[in-house]
Amino acid sequence: MPGLVSVKTPPDSAPLRISVPESAPPQPQRSSPAGPSKPPSPLARKTPSPSASRSRSSPNRLKSKSPQPEPILADASLDNPDLGPFLLKLARDTIASGEGPNKALDYAVRAAKSFERCAVEGEPSLDLVMSLHVLAAIYCSLGRFEEAVPVLDRAIRVPEIGRGADHALAAFSGHMQMGDTYSMLGLVDRSIECYEEGLKIQIEALGETDPRVGETCRYLAEAHVQAMQFDRADELCKKTLEIHRAHSEPASMEEAADRRLMALICEAKGDYEAALEHLVLASMSMIANAQENEVAAIDVSIGNIYMSLCRFDEAVFSYQKALTVLKSSRGDNHPSVASIFVRLADLYHKTGKLRESKSYCENALRIYVKPVPGTTAEEISSGLTEISAIYESIDEPEEALKLLQKAMSLLEDKPGQQSTIAGIEARMGVMYCMLGRYEEARSSFGSAIAKLRASGEKKSPFFGVVLNQMGLACVQLFKIDEAGELFEEARSILEKECGPCHQDTLGVYSNLAATYDAMGRVEDAIEILEYVLKLREEKLGIANPDFEDEKRRLSELLKEAGRKRDKKAKSLENLIDPNSKKTTKKEGTRRWASLGFRL
User: Residues 6 or more apart from 357 whose CB is under 8 A from it?
Assistant: First the structure.
């Protein structure tokens, strides 16, 4: 956590293996920037193992002496002002010795109670704040994130920022730790709100140009990137770059990390030339600092940009250059080598070399099936998801579906992965639709939508696209009312986030018009189609083949509106595609892309 500052812990206490405040008075110069590749959640996820050598009382001793509570744990003694620091030190020592977090949790709870009892009335106790931070960190190490939230909420309310830097930094630490906890719960919007509040407090305490403010800006920028809020991420990353250039040497590691993040943001926004410029400068900084593996990682990113620009020969050169370095330094079976195989497979697929593409996919899968020690589930899952996209594009949906199912199973028990799992489930829904398994598709889309709503991504363009996809699955199942509700929600989101002229928005308009017609709401369908045709004529042009189809559909609806409505229900296939006849499953699969069915 950037700029994390703790308060008044006994100076001789041992360090914890989990992320808790360090045992030292507030030191403005201390900071620990987040790594470029880690999600904004530095809380430890692994629980220290309990000690296997715990002594037992003998039967004779139990008979001769009845068990008595330890004096330090008796509630009556919590009024002793010296007990709180001692109990907190015991909690830290218990974790450090490997005796188990449950015992440390008991000590931390009692320490917090002692600090609360001994606090002077009307005076906010920073000792209490620090003990609450430790208690919340232990809850998180146990995976009990929901219980950590009220503890941190209480810790945030204690400091009074106007009382000086100690209180301000204690409040900052609480907000950042709360943001990390919400992130592990998958509540992205709440997490970002906490980070933003923490940044505001830190700027008030330290000023806008302090190096630790730059670290927090970068930390928050990474969170916004994960939430696909690229404009705010761009703003924060530029501020970080300015601060680091002012306080660091030229071609510093900090500046290189900032430029890599900036390149990622530019690439997401479609500004490939700017992304390439940042990556080249970052590579030069890494070369100056003799970081060969980092240079190779940047070469992979440069290859991605070249591929986006259709400069395929230059992309192959960048990938092969990185592959040579990583094979030499990390071995042939390292996941970073597999990731380059996946990129090469994607490149050769785009250039029509399907045999080479499939060969690289198989090479990558061999590595992911038997990963080297230290490979994370997230790395394997990401690789399998990328390979599945290639199998999907070469018309092998069954194989793609198997890979997605494996990728999802690797992440199901991992905290903070709800959004990633939702994305995989949405992809699985598409595969089910391609295979004609619409009920399973509807279920998969529904699960993805529920996770996206819970994680605070219900206003993102991706959420709108998933709603549209689920609506199409409902159409195939003749659940017209449900489809209409989904299309309406998708329209409201995509109109706001992408604009009415975006291709995804136009696809939703078309689907919604067809659904309204099927529901008997002809006037509403006519209104939508007239609006779409007006957009195409005035802003998009009429060369698009969809224009003639929409014009013909509108003409038919207007004729129907001029006479008594035929009560005979139309075929849903004809409503979605008036030219379609009785189709095979494979022909029906091809129709999805033309309906705005996109990931």
Answer: 345, 346, 347, 348, 349, 390, 394
Nearest to 384 by CA among 441, 433, 345: 345
Phi, psi of 534 (to 5 degrees): -65, -40
User: 67: Cβ–Cβ under 8 A, 6 or more apart, which residues?
Assistant: none
CA distance from start to end of the chain: 33
- Amino acid at the residue 358: K
Could you tell me the pTM of the whole model? 0.69
Residue with tokens 């403005």: 28
Q: Encode burial over 116-129: b for 16+ CB neighbours within 10 A, e otherwise.
A: bebbeeeeebbbbb
Distances in Å between the Cα of 90 and the Cα atoms of 19, 46, 96, 319, 432 are 16, 20, 10, 52, 54
Segment 78-118, tens digit of pLDDT? 667 778 888 888 888 888 887 778 888 888 888 888 888 88
CA distances from 149 to 187, 209, 297, 456, 555 (A): 12, 31, 37, 17, 58
CA gap 240, 255 in Å, rounded: 9
CB burial of 374-399 (b: ≥16 within 10 Å; e: otherwise) equals ebebbbbbbbbbbbbbbbbeeeebeb
526: region left, alpha or beta (phi > 0 left; psi from -120 to 50 alpha) = alpha
Tell me how far apart the alpha carbons of residues 240 and 212 are, in angstroms, rounded to a whole number. Answer: 10
Residue that the structure tokens 């670290």 belong to: 215
Q: Give residue for tokens 């219900």.
A: 458
Q: What distance in Å separates the CA atoms of residue 258 and residue 219, rounded to the nearest whole number?
A: 10
Cβ atoms within 10 A of the Cβ of 41, count?
Answer: 23
Asked if residue 393 lies in contact with residue 361, where contact means CB atoms within 8 angstroms, the answer is: no
Do 308 and 296 touch, CB atoms closer than 8 A? no
| Nearest Cα residue to 164 out of 357, 383, 7 | 7
What is the SS3 string spanning 296-354?
A: HHHHHHHHHHHHHCCCHHHHHHHHHHHHHHHHHHHCCCCHHHHHHHHHHHHHHHHCCCH
CA dist., res. 156 & res. 173, Å (int): 9
Helix H, strand E, coil C: the string for 358-376 is: HHHHHHHHHHHHCCCCCCC
Distance CA(178)–CA(429), nearest Å, equals 34
Highest mean pLDDT among 70-84, 105-119, 148-162: 148-162
- Amino acid, res. 243: I
The string of pLDDT tens digits covering residues 488-534 is: 999 999 988 888 888 888 889 888 988 988 888 888 888 888 888 88
**Residue 459, number of CB atoms within 10 A of its CB:** 14
How far is Cα 590 from Cα 588, in angstroms, rounded to an integer? Answer: 5
| 105 contact partners, CB below 8 Å, separation of at least 6 | 91, 135, 138, 139, 142
pLDDT at position 156, please?
92
Task: Give the amino acid at 255.
Answer: E
At residue 49, the pLDDT reads 36
Residue 458 corresponds to which amino acid? K
Structure tokens at 20: 């808790």
Question: In angstroms, how far apart are the furthest CA atoms of the chain?
Answer: 100
| 535, burial (CB in 10 Å: exposed 0-12, middle 13-18, buried 19+) | middle
Closest CA to 576 of 589, 595, 597, 596: 595
